[in-house]
Amino acid sequence: MARPVPRPSSPSSAPSAAASASAVKILIAGGFGVGKTTLVGAVSEVAPLRTEEYLTRASEGVDDLSGVDSKETTTVALDFGRITVSPELVVYLFGTPGQERFWFMWNDLVNGALGGIVIADTRRLDSSFASIDFFESRGIPFVVAINCFHGENTRTVAEVRAALDLDPQVPMLVGDVRVRAFGRDLLLALVDHLMELSTGAPVR
Question: Could you tell me how far CA 34 lies from the centroid of its own chain?
Answer without folding.
Answer: 11
